[in-house]
Amino acid sequence: MPLPLDNQLCFALYATSMAINRTYKPMLDEMGITYPQYLVLNALGEADGMSVGTIARRLALDSSTVTPLVKRMEQAGLVTRQRSHDDERQVQVDLTAAGRALLTQCSCLGETLVERSGMTSAEIDALTRKVRALRDALSGDQSADAA
After folding, report:
1. Sign of the CA dihedral running 95, 32, 62, 20
2. Core-most of 75, 88, 109, 123, by most CB within 10 Å?
3. What is the DSSP letter of 86?
4. 17-67, pLDDT tens digit by residue?
5. Which of 58-62, 66-70, 81-85 has the lowest mean pLDDT?
6. Kind of pairing, strands 79-83 and 50-51?
């Protein structure tokens, strides 16, 4: 017989992810973006000018999922898309000034998470590192940082 749900790590992580999304949703709605679009903004904040394929890999999504997200973000004036000069099969995505401004505005999400969690930023960071290490171990990612 399996463990009760509350004793299963997979369920705790799933339920926590859902709770975080519910916490973020009103703020994202106010900004006019979805959670997946928020993730794309963050990925581009790390390295602007990524290809759609690189964004997809960074977010562990399929390119076919990222393409419509990016198209909607382009229509909203948050990003620009341009075919790569080196490889026309690749589409490069860049943040616009409006996209950068929105990314800056998104910092309230992390602040709200820390505030509502009752944890310190350091505790959230430590938990994030542990969860990331678990993810990397389960996916076989040997390039994970030791931090």
Report:
1. positive
2. 109
3. S
4. 999 999 999 999 999 999 999 999 999 999 989 999 999 999 999 999 999
5. 81-85
6. unpaired
Average pLDDT over residues 104-124: 94
Are 106 and 42 spatial neighbours (Cβ–Cβ below 8 Å)?
yes
For residue 32, give the H/E element and its range.
none
- Which pLDDT belongs to residue 130? 97
Domains, the chain, with CATH or none: 5-139 (1.10.10.10)
- Torsion sign (Cα): 116, 120, 121, 123: negative
Q: Token pair for residue 123?
A: 């505790």
Task: Please count the other Cβ atoms lying within 10 Å of the Cβ belonging to residue 26.
Answer: 10
Nearest-angstrom CA–CA distance, 94 and 92 = 7
- Report the candidate in 107, 99, 88, 93 with the shortest Cα–Cα distance to residue 41: 99
2 touches 8 (CB < 8 A): yes
Quick one: DSSP state of residue 77? T
